[in-house]
Amino acid sequence: MQNISLTFLLLSTLLSADITRGQAVYKSNCAMCHTIDGRGGLGPDFNMVSYTRTNAQIAHYAKDPYAMYRSFGYDANAMPTLPLTDQEIVDVADYIGSLVKFKKWMIKKEK
Question: pTM of this prediction?
Answer without folding.
Answer: 0.73
